[in-house]
Design brief:
This protein is of the alpha/beta class. The protein has helices spanning 2-21, 127-130, 159-164, 209-214, 311-317, 366-380, 382-385, 410-418, 442-453, 465-471; strands at residues 32-37, 55-72, 75-82, 91-94, 98-105, 116-117, 137-143, 148-153, 168-174, 184-193, 203-205, 219-222, 235-238, 242-251, 256-261, 265-269, 278-281, 283-286, 290-297, 302-308, 320-326, 352-353, 420-426, 429-435, 437-438. The strands form 6 sheets. Strands 1, 2, 3, 5, 7 and 11 form a 6-stranded mixed sheet that branches. Strands 12-10-14-19-16-17 form a 6-stranded mixed sheet. The protein has a 5-stranded mixed sheet with strand order 13-21-20-15-18, with helices on one face.
Protein backbone atom coordinates (compact mmCIF):
# COMPACT_ATOMS: atom_id res chain seq x y z
CA UNK A 1 0.00 0.00 0.00
CA UNK A 2 2.82 2.36 0.90
CA UNK A 3 4.61 1.41 -2.32
CA UNK A 4 1.44 2.21 -4.30
CA UNK A 5 1.08 5.61 -2.62
CA UNK A 6 4.76 6.34 -3.22
CA UNK A 7 4.42 5.35 -6.87
CA UNK A 8 1.40 7.62 -7.36
CA UNK A 9 3.10 10.46 -5.53
CA UNK A 10 6.25 9.98 -7.62
CA UNK A 11 4.24 9.94 -10.82
CA UNK A 12 2.45 13.11 -9.80
CA UNK A 13 5.71 14.83 -8.95
CA UNK A 14 7.16 13.64 -12.25
CA UNK A 15 4.18 15.02 -14.18
CA UNK A 16 4.45 18.25 -12.27
CA UNK A 17 8.11 18.41 -13.16
CA UNK A 18 7.36 17.80 -16.81
CA UNK A 19 4.71 20.49 -16.74
CA UNK A 20 7.10 22.96 -15.17
CA UNK A 21 9.81 22.03 -17.66
CA UNK A 22 7.61 22.67 -20.70
CA UNK A 23 8.57 25.93 -22.45
CA UNK A 24 6.26 28.88 -21.98
CA UNK A 25 4.41 29.96 -25.13
CA UNK A 26 6.11 32.71 -27.07
CA UNK A 27 4.67 36.15 -26.81
CA UNK A 28 2.86 37.22 -29.97
CA UNK A 29 4.98 39.30 -32.35
CA UNK A 30 1.79 40.83 -33.69
CA UNK A 31 0.44 42.55 -30.61
CA UNK A 32 -2.31 45.01 -31.54
CA UNK A 33 -1.28 48.43 -30.31
CA UNK A 34 -3.34 50.88 -32.39
CA UNK A 35 -6.52 51.25 -34.42
CA UNK A 36 -7.10 52.94 -37.77
CA UNK A 37 -9.58 53.25 -40.64
CA UNK A 38 -8.24 51.72 -43.84
CA UNK A 39 -7.47 54.09 -46.70
CA UNK A 40 -9.19 52.71 -49.80
CA UNK A 41 -8.45 53.90 -53.33
CA UNK A 42 -9.95 53.57 -56.81
CA UNK A 43 -7.77 52.16 -59.59
CA UNK A 44 -5.21 53.06 -60.76
CA UNK A 45 -4.38 54.76 -57.43
CA UNK A 46 -2.83 52.78 -54.55
CA UNK A 47 -2.94 53.65 -50.83
CA UNK A 48 0.39 54.82 -49.36
CA UNK A 49 3.00 52.39 -48.09
CA UNK A 50 2.60 51.29 -44.50
CA UNK A 51 5.38 52.70 -42.33
CA UNK A 52 4.25 51.59 -38.88
CA UNK A 53 6.30 48.81 -37.30
CA UNK A 54 3.50 47.23 -35.30
CA UNK A 55 0.24 45.42 -35.93
CA UNK A 56 -2.99 47.38 -35.75
CA UNK A 57 -6.71 46.88 -35.72
CA UNK A 58 -7.77 48.06 -39.16
CA UNK A 59 -11.40 48.87 -39.93
CA UNK A 60 -12.42 48.40 -43.57
CA UNK A 61 -15.70 49.91 -44.79
CA UNK A 62 -16.59 48.69 -48.27
CA UNK A 63 -19.88 49.47 -50.02
CA UNK A 64 -21.41 47.32 -52.75
CA UNK A 65 -23.08 49.35 -55.49
CA UNK A 66 -24.83 48.30 -58.68
CA UNK A 67 -24.18 51.07 -61.22
CA UNK A 68 -24.55 51.69 -64.93
CA UNK A 69 -21.31 52.81 -66.56
CA UNK A 70 -19.18 52.87 -69.69
CA UNK A 71 -17.72 49.59 -70.97
CA UNK A 72 -16.54 50.97 -74.35
CA UNK A 73 -17.31 53.98 -76.52
CA UNK A 74 -21.06 54.04 -76.96
CA UNK A 75 -21.43 50.83 -74.93
CA UNK A 76 -22.79 50.84 -71.38
CA UNK A 77 -23.21 48.04 -68.87
CA UNK A 78 -24.73 47.53 -65.42
CA UNK A 79 -21.70 46.80 -63.25
CA UNK A 80 -21.85 45.25 -59.80
CA UNK A 81 -19.04 46.83 -57.85
CA UNK A 82 -17.14 47.04 -54.60
CA UNK A 83 -17.06 50.79 -54.11
CA UNK A 84 -18.77 52.09 -57.25
CA UNK A 85 -16.08 51.25 -59.82
CA UNK A 86 -14.38 48.28 -61.47
CA UNK A 87 -12.10 46.98 -60.11
CA UNK A 88 -13.06 47.38 -56.46
CA UNK A 89 -11.19 49.52 -53.97
CA UNK A 90 -7.54 48.69 -53.32
CA UNK A 91 -7.11 47.56 -49.69
CA UNK A 92 -3.68 47.79 -48.02
CA UNK A 93 -2.92 46.25 -44.63
CA UNK A 94 0.08 44.74 -42.80
CA UNK A 95 0.95 41.20 -41.81
CA UNK A 96 -0.35 40.60 -38.29
CA UNK A 97 -3.12 43.20 -38.52
CA UNK A 98 -6.55 42.40 -37.14
CA UNK A 99 -9.11 43.48 -39.73
CA UNK A 100 -12.68 44.38 -38.84
CA UNK A 101 -14.51 44.21 -42.14
CA UNK A 102 -17.81 46.02 -42.78
CA UNK A 103 -19.57 45.03 -46.02
CA UNK A 104 -22.40 47.44 -46.78
CA UNK A 105 -24.98 46.60 -49.47
CA UNK A 106 -26.51 49.82 -50.78
CA UNK A 107 -30.32 49.93 -50.33
CA UNK A 108 -30.85 50.72 -54.03
CA UNK A 109 -29.22 47.45 -55.07
CA UNK A 110 -31.32 44.54 -56.29
CA UNK A 111 -29.10 41.61 -55.32
CA UNK A 112 -27.56 40.14 -52.16
CA UNK A 113 -23.75 40.11 -52.24
CA UNK A 114 -20.83 38.90 -50.16
CA UNK A 115 -17.03 38.94 -50.30
CA UNK A 116 -14.38 36.24 -50.51
CA UNK A 117 -10.93 37.66 -49.75
CA UNK A 118 -8.12 35.32 -50.76
CA UNK A 119 -6.07 36.89 -47.95
CA UNK A 120 -8.40 35.40 -45.32
CA UNK A 121 -7.71 32.13 -43.52
CA UNK A 122 -11.18 30.80 -42.79
CA UNK A 123 -14.20 29.18 -44.50
CA UNK A 124 -15.05 30.87 -47.78
CA UNK A 125 -12.54 33.64 -47.21
CA UNK A 126 -15.28 35.51 -45.39
CA UNK A 127 -18.05 34.72 -47.87
CA UNK A 128 -20.35 32.86 -45.46
CA UNK A 129 -19.98 35.55 -42.81
CA UNK A 130 -20.63 38.42 -45.19
CA UNK A 131 -23.74 37.49 -47.21
CA UNK A 132 -25.62 40.78 -47.15
CA UNK A 133 -29.06 41.77 -48.44
CA UNK A 134 -29.68 45.20 -49.98
CA UNK A 135 -29.92 47.84 -47.29
CA UNK A 136 -27.99 45.75 -44.76
CA UNK A 137 -24.43 45.61 -43.42
CA UNK A 138 -22.40 42.57 -42.33
CA UNK A 139 -19.37 42.63 -40.05
CA UNK A 140 -16.70 39.97 -39.56
CA UNK A 141 -13.02 40.00 -38.60
CA UNK A 142 -9.88 38.15 -39.60
CA UNK A 143 -6.18 38.06 -38.82
CA UNK A 144 -3.80 38.84 -41.68
CA UNK A 145 -1.53 35.82 -41.27
CA UNK A 146 0.19 35.69 -44.66
CA UNK A 147 1.80 38.55 -46.56
CA UNK A 148 1.13 38.85 -50.28
CA UNK A 149 -1.02 40.41 -52.98
CA UNK A 150 -4.45 38.79 -53.09
CA UNK A 151 -7.65 38.96 -55.11
CA UNK A 152 -11.03 39.45 -53.50
CA UNK A 153 -14.36 38.88 -55.22
CA UNK A 154 -18.04 38.26 -54.67
CA UNK A 155 -18.93 34.61 -54.07
CA UNK A 156 -22.73 34.80 -54.16
CA UNK A 157 -24.38 32.32 -56.54
CA UNK A 158 -24.15 32.34 -59.47
CA UNK A 159 -20.55 33.22 -58.62
CA UNK A 160 -19.34 33.56 -62.22
CA UNK A 161 -22.06 36.11 -62.98
CA UNK A 162 -21.23 38.28 -59.97
CA UNK A 163 -17.53 38.22 -60.88
CA UNK A 164 -18.20 38.79 -64.59
CA UNK A 165 -20.21 41.89 -63.67
CA UNK A 166 -17.11 43.44 -62.09
CA UNK A 167 -17.10 42.28 -58.48
CA UNK A 168 -13.37 41.90 -57.81
CA UNK A 169 -10.41 43.84 -56.47
CA UNK A 170 -7.02 43.52 -54.77
CA UNK A 171 -5.93 43.42 -51.13
CA UNK A 172 -2.24 43.81 -50.29
CA UNK A 173 -0.89 42.37 -47.04
CA UNK A 174 2.51 43.99 -46.61
CA UNK A 175 5.17 41.87 -44.89
CA UNK A 176 6.22 42.97 -41.41
CA UNK A 177 9.52 44.19 -42.83
CA UNK A 178 7.63 46.53 -45.14
CA UNK A 179 8.07 47.21 -48.84
CA UNK A 180 10.78 49.20 -50.55
CA UNK A 181 10.03 52.72 -51.66
CA UNK A 182 9.44 53.40 -55.36
CA UNK A 183 8.49 56.56 -57.23
CA UNK A 184 5.10 55.30 -58.44
CA UNK A 185 2.68 52.52 -57.57
CA UNK A 186 -0.28 51.73 -59.84
CA UNK A 187 -3.26 49.38 -59.63
CA UNK A 188 -4.28 47.52 -62.80
CA UNK A 189 -6.81 44.69 -62.97
CA UNK A 190 -7.99 42.73 -65.98
CA UNK A 191 -11.47 41.30 -66.46
CA UNK A 192 -13.49 39.59 -69.19
CA UNK A 193 -17.02 40.78 -69.99
CA UNK A 194 -19.78 38.80 -71.68
CA UNK A 195 -22.38 40.97 -73.37
CA UNK A 196 -25.40 39.80 -75.32
CA UNK A 197 -24.53 42.24 -78.09
CA UNK A 198 -21.44 41.88 -80.29
CA UNK A 199 -18.26 43.84 -79.56
CA UNK A 200 -18.95 47.47 -80.38
CA UNK A 201 -22.73 47.13 -80.48
CA UNK A 202 -24.08 50.38 -79.08
CA UNK A 203 -26.29 51.01 -76.08
CA UNK A 204 -26.86 49.30 -72.74
CA UNK A 205 -25.70 45.69 -72.92
CA UNK A 206 -26.95 42.81 -70.78
CA UNK A 207 -24.90 39.93 -69.39
CA UNK A 208 -24.81 36.70 -71.43
CA UNK A 209 -24.50 33.57 -69.32
CA UNK A 210 -24.20 31.48 -72.50
CA UNK A 211 -21.04 33.35 -73.60
CA UNK A 212 -19.66 33.20 -70.07
CA UNK A 213 -20.08 29.42 -69.91
CA UNK A 214 -18.46 29.09 -73.33
CA UNK A 215 -15.68 31.47 -72.21
CA UNK A 216 -16.14 33.74 -75.23
CA UNK A 217 -16.03 37.34 -73.97
CA UNK A 218 -16.84 40.29 -76.19
CA UNK A 219 -14.53 42.52 -74.13
CA UNK A 220 -11.32 41.92 -72.21
CA UNK A 221 -10.32 45.15 -70.48
CA UNK A 222 -8.12 46.78 -67.88
CA UNK A 223 -9.82 48.61 -65.00
CA UNK A 224 -13.38 48.04 -66.09
CA UNK A 225 -13.54 49.61 -69.56
CA UNK A 226 -11.81 49.77 -72.92
CA UNK A 227 -9.56 52.84 -72.97
CA UNK A 228 -9.58 53.28 -69.18
CA UNK A 229 -5.77 53.66 -69.20
CA UNK A 230 -5.23 55.45 -72.52
CA UNK A 231 -5.09 59.07 -73.65
CA UNK A 232 -5.64 61.47 -70.78
CA UNK A 233 -6.15 58.48 -68.45
CA UNK A 234 -2.71 56.98 -69.18
CA UNK A 235 -0.39 56.27 -66.28
CA UNK A 236 2.39 58.87 -66.02
CA UNK A 237 6.02 58.83 -64.89
CA UNK A 238 9.31 60.60 -65.57
CA UNK A 239 12.51 59.24 -67.03
CA UNK A 240 14.55 57.59 -64.26
CA UNK A 241 11.51 56.83 -62.08
CA UNK A 242 10.91 53.42 -60.54
CA UNK A 243 7.45 51.97 -61.09
CA UNK A 244 5.64 49.21 -59.21
CA UNK A 245 2.52 47.72 -60.82
CA UNK A 246 0.03 45.72 -58.78
CA UNK A 247 -1.74 43.62 -61.40
CA UNK A 248 -4.65 41.27 -60.80
CA UNK A 249 -7.03 39.24 -62.93
CA UNK A 250 -10.64 39.13 -61.82
CA UNK A 251 -11.71 36.85 -64.62
CA UNK A 252 -14.00 35.08 -64.25
CA UNK A 253 -12.32 32.89 -66.86
CA UNK A 254 -9.28 34.15 -68.76
CA UNK A 255 -5.62 34.02 -67.79
CA UNK A 256 -3.57 37.11 -68.67
CA UNK A 257 -0.16 37.23 -70.32
CA UNK A 258 0.75 40.64 -68.95
CA UNK A 259 3.43 42.59 -70.84
CA UNK A 260 4.62 46.19 -71.15
CA UNK A 261 5.86 46.80 -74.69
CA UNK A 262 9.35 48.31 -74.60
CA UNK A 263 10.09 47.45 -70.96
CA UNK A 264 11.62 44.54 -69.08
CA UNK A 265 10.42 43.89 -65.55
CA UNK A 266 13.41 44.18 -63.22
CA UNK A 267 11.53 42.14 -60.62
CA UNK A 268 8.33 40.10 -60.69
CA UNK A 269 6.68 38.65 -57.61
CA UNK A 270 4.73 35.83 -59.22
CA UNK A 271 1.25 34.97 -57.93
CA UNK A 272 1.46 37.80 -55.42
CA UNK A 273 4.10 36.11 -53.29
CA UNK A 274 6.46 38.32 -51.28
CA UNK A 275 9.23 35.71 -51.53
CA UNK A 276 12.31 36.21 -53.72
CA UNK A 277 11.22 37.76 -57.02
CA UNK A 278 12.15 36.62 -60.50
CA UNK A 279 14.40 39.05 -62.37
CA UNK A 280 14.50 40.37 -65.94
CA UNK A 281 11.08 39.10 -67.01
CA UNK A 282 9.45 39.97 -70.34
CA UNK A 283 5.88 38.68 -69.88
CA UNK A 284 4.27 37.23 -66.77
CA UNK A 285 1.28 34.94 -66.61
CA UNK A 286 -1.45 35.83 -64.12
CA UNK A 287 -4.33 33.37 -63.65
CA UNK A 288 -7.97 34.24 -63.11
CA UNK A 289 -8.31 34.94 -59.41
CA UNK A 290 -4.59 35.63 -59.13
CA UNK A 291 -2.23 38.59 -58.94
CA UNK A 292 1.40 39.60 -59.35
CA UNK A 293 3.41 42.72 -58.79
CA UNK A 294 6.38 43.90 -60.76
CA UNK A 295 8.94 46.69 -60.60
CA UNK A 296 10.98 48.40 -63.30
CA UNK A 297 12.87 51.60 -63.96
CA UNK A 298 11.91 53.73 -66.96
CA UNK A 299 15.15 54.72 -68.65
CA UNK A 300 13.94 56.54 -71.77
CA UNK A 301 10.88 58.69 -72.49
CA UNK A 302 7.96 57.63 -74.63
CA UNK A 303 4.63 55.85 -74.50
CA UNK A 304 4.80 52.28 -73.25
CA UNK A 305 1.84 50.06 -74.11
CA UNK A 306 0.53 47.62 -71.50
CA UNK A 307 -1.21 44.59 -72.98
CA UNK A 308 -2.47 41.13 -72.45
CA UNK A 309 -0.09 39.49 -74.94
CA UNK A 310 -2.92 37.33 -76.22
CA UNK A 311 -2.95 40.19 -78.67
CA UNK A 312 -6.43 40.16 -80.15
CA UNK A 313 -7.62 40.80 -76.61
CA UNK A 314 -5.42 43.89 -76.55
CA UNK A 315 -6.05 45.34 -79.99
CA UNK A 316 -9.60 44.12 -80.60
CA UNK A 317 -11.25 43.62 -77.21
CA UNK A 318 -9.75 46.37 -75.03
CA UNK A 319 -6.95 44.90 -72.87
CA UNK A 320 -4.60 47.80 -73.59
CA UNK A 321 -3.25 50.63 -71.46
CA UNK A 322 -0.51 53.25 -71.64
CA UNK A 323 2.34 54.45 -69.44
CA UNK A 324 3.54 57.84 -70.66
CA UNK A 325 7.09 58.71 -69.62
CA UNK A 326 8.39 62.27 -69.97
CA UNK A 327 12.00 63.46 -70.03
CA UNK A 328 15.03 63.91 -72.26
CA UNK A 329 16.05 61.24 -74.74
CA UNK A 330 19.05 59.00 -74.09
CA UNK A 331 20.37 57.87 -77.48
CA UNK A 332 22.85 55.50 -75.84
CA UNK A 333 19.96 53.36 -74.57
CA UNK A 334 17.52 53.82 -77.43
CA UNK A 335 18.37 55.64 -80.65
CA UNK A 336 15.01 55.84 -82.35
CA UNK A 337 14.98 55.36 -86.13
CA UNK A 338 18.41 56.01 -87.61
CA UNK A 339 17.75 55.27 -91.29
CA UNK A 340 14.81 54.45 -93.54
CA UNK A 341 15.59 52.39 -96.61
CA UNK A 342 13.37 50.69 -99.18
CA UNK A 343 12.91 46.97 -98.65
CA UNK A 344 10.70 44.95 -100.98
CA UNK A 345 10.24 41.35 -99.81
CA UNK A 346 8.63 38.79 -102.06
CA UNK A 347 5.10 37.61 -101.47
CA UNK A 348 3.58 40.87 -100.20
CA UNK A 349 -0.16 40.60 -100.50
CA UNK A 350 -3.28 42.37 -99.39
CA UNK A 351 -4.67 41.44 -96.00
CA UNK A 352 -8.40 41.27 -95.38
CA UNK A 353 -9.99 41.18 -91.96
CA UNK A 354 -12.69 38.78 -93.01
CA UNK A 355 -14.71 38.71 -89.81
CA UNK A 356 -18.40 39.22 -90.36
CA UNK A 357 -19.92 41.98 -88.29
CA UNK A 358 -23.37 42.17 -86.77
CA UNK A 359 -25.81 44.72 -88.18
CA UNK A 360 -25.05 48.15 -86.73
CA UNK A 361 -27.81 50.34 -85.30
CA UNK A 362 -29.04 53.00 -87.72
CA UNK A 363 -27.96 56.59 -87.15
CA UNK A 364 -30.87 59.02 -87.29
CA UNK A 365 -28.81 62.22 -87.39
CA UNK A 366 -25.32 63.30 -88.33
CA UNK A 367 -24.53 63.68 -84.63
CA UNK A 368 -25.59 60.05 -84.07
CA UNK A 369 -23.36 58.97 -86.94
CA UNK A 370 -20.36 60.79 -85.48
CA UNK A 371 -20.91 59.31 -82.03
CA UNK A 372 -21.27 55.76 -83.33
CA UNK A 373 -18.32 56.23 -85.64
CA UNK A 374 -16.03 57.17 -82.76
CA UNK A 375 -16.47 53.74 -81.18
CA UNK A 376 -15.78 51.99 -84.49
CA UNK A 377 -12.67 54.14 -85.01
CA UNK A 378 -11.26 53.41 -81.56
CA UNK A 379 -11.80 49.67 -82.06
CA UNK A 380 -10.49 49.34 -85.62
CA UNK A 381 -8.37 52.36 -86.59
CA UNK A 382 -6.77 53.99 -83.55
CA UNK A 383 -3.96 51.44 -83.17
CA UNK A 384 -2.44 52.62 -86.48
CA UNK A 385 -3.74 56.15 -86.95
CA UNK A 386 -3.74 57.04 -83.22
CA UNK A 387 -6.60 58.46 -81.16
CA UNK A 388 -5.52 61.95 -82.28
CA UNK A 389 -5.59 61.03 -85.98
CA UNK A 390 -1.89 61.94 -86.23
CA UNK A 391 -0.79 58.57 -87.63
CA UNK A 392 2.77 57.35 -87.27
CA UNK A 393 5.54 59.10 -89.26
CA UNK A 394 6.79 57.01 -92.20
CA UNK A 395 4.41 54.19 -91.29
CA UNK A 396 0.72 55.21 -91.13
CA UNK A 397 -0.55 58.39 -92.80
CA UNK A 398 -2.31 61.06 -90.76
CA UNK A 399 -6.07 61.46 -90.85
CA UNK A 400 -5.92 64.81 -89.06
CA UNK A 401 -6.11 67.71 -91.55
CA UNK A 402 -5.47 65.14 -94.28
CA UNK A 403 -5.47 66.25 -97.91
CA UNK A 404 -6.39 62.66 -98.83
CA UNK A 405 -9.80 63.41 -97.34
CA UNK A 406 -10.38 66.61 -99.33
CA UNK A 407 -12.81 66.53 -102.25
CA UNK A 408 -14.80 63.39 -103.02
CA UNK A 409 -15.44 60.85 -100.25
CA UNK A 410 -15.22 57.97 -102.75
CA UNK A 411 -11.45 57.28 -102.29
CA UNK A 412 -11.89 56.98 -98.52
CA UNK A 413 -14.84 54.59 -98.93
CA UNK A 414 -12.84 52.45 -101.35
CA UNK A 415 -9.86 52.42 -98.96
CA UNK A 416 -11.94 51.18 -96.03
CA UNK A 417 -13.89 48.58 -98.02
CA UNK A 418 -11.13 47.44 -100.36
CA UNK A 419 -7.90 48.23 -98.56
CA UNK A 420 -4.83 50.05 -99.87
CA UNK A 421 -1.42 48.87 -101.00
CA UNK A 422 1.55 50.65 -102.50
CA UNK A 423 2.75 54.24 -102.57
CA UNK A 424 0.50 56.95 -101.20
CA UNK A 425 1.25 60.66 -100.72
CA UNK A 426 -0.55 62.40 -97.86
CA UNK A 427 0.18 65.99 -96.85
CA UNK A 428 3.34 65.91 -98.99
CA UNK A 429 4.80 62.79 -97.35
CA UNK A 430 5.12 59.43 -99.07
CA UNK A 431 3.87 56.22 -97.45
CA UNK A 432 4.30 52.72 -98.80
CA UNK A 433 2.44 50.10 -96.82
CA UNK A 434 -0.59 47.86 -96.63
CA UNK A 435 -3.97 48.75 -95.17
CA UNK A 436 -6.39 45.83 -94.77
CA UNK A 437 -9.96 46.05 -95.92
CA UNK A 438 -12.44 45.93 -93.07
CA UNK A 439 -15.58 43.80 -93.09
CA UNK A 440 -17.78 46.62 -91.86
CA UNK A 441 -21.30 46.98 -93.20
CA UNK A 442 -22.46 50.09 -95.03
CA UNK A 443 -23.85 51.75 -91.91
CA UNK A 444 -20.60 51.21 -89.97
CA UNK A 445 -18.39 52.50 -92.80
CA UNK A 446 -20.59 55.57 -93.10
CA UNK A 447 -20.38 56.17 -89.36
CA UNK A 448 -16.62 55.83 -89.00
CA UNK A 449 -15.86 57.97 -92.04
CA UNK A 450 -18.29 60.65 -90.88
CA UNK A 451 -16.50 60.66 -87.53
CA UNK A 452 -13.13 61.05 -89.28
CA UNK A 453 -14.39 63.80 -91.59
CA UNK A 454 -15.72 65.69 -88.56
CA UNK A 455 -12.59 65.38 -86.41
CA UNK A 456 -9.12 66.92 -86.22
CA UNK A 457 -9.71 69.83 -88.57
CA UNK A 458 -11.15 67.89 -91.52
CA UNK A 459 -13.91 69.17 -93.81
CA UNK A 460 -17.03 68.13 -91.90
CA UNK A 461 -18.61 65.93 -94.62
CA UNK A 462 -21.26 63.33 -93.86
CA UNK A 463 -20.94 59.92 -95.50
CA UNK A 464 -24.20 57.99 -95.87
CA UNK A 465 -24.79 54.24 -96.25
CA UNK A 466 -25.99 55.00 -99.79
CA UNK A 467 -22.60 56.59 -100.55
CA UNK A 468 -20.84 53.51 -99.23
CA UNK A 469 -23.02 51.14 -101.25
CA UNK A 470 -22.26 53.14 -104.40
CA UNK A 471 -18.46 53.08 -103.99
CA UNK A 472 -17.86 49.85 -102.03
CA UNK A 473 -15.08 47.58 -103.31
CA UNK A 474 -15.66 44.31 -101.42
CA UNK A 475 -19.08 43.02 -100.37
CA UNK A 476 -19.54 42.23 -96.70
CA UNK A 477 -21.03 39.07 -95.26
CA UNK A 478 -23.55 39.31 -92.45
CA UNK A 479 -24.17 36.76 -89.77
CA UNK A 480 -27.48 34.97 -90.02
Amino acid sequence: MKKTRLFVLGAALCMAGLTQAAPAPKASSSKISSQEIAILTDAPAVPPRITRKHAAKVIVNLEVKEVEGRLADGVSYTFWTFGGKVPGKFIRIREGDEVEFHLNNHPDNKMPHNIDLHAVTGPGGGAAASLTAPGHSSVFSFKALNPGLYVYHCATAPVAMHVANGMYGLILVEPKAGMSKVDHEFYVMQGDFYTQGKNGEQGLQAFSMTKAIEEEPEYVVFNGAAGSLTGDNALKAKKGDTVRLFVGVGGPNLTSSFHVIGEIFDKVNHEGSTASPAKNVQTTMIPAGGAAYMEFKVNVPGTYIMVDHSLTRAFNKGALGMLKVSGDEDKTIYSGKMTDEVYLPEGTSMRNTGVAQAQAPTAKTKADRIKMGEGIYNTNCAACHQTTGAGVPQAFPPLAKSDYLSGSTAPAIKAVTGGLQGKLVVNGNEYNGVMPSWSLNDEEVANVLTYIYNSWGNGGDEVTPEDVKKHRINPVKHEE
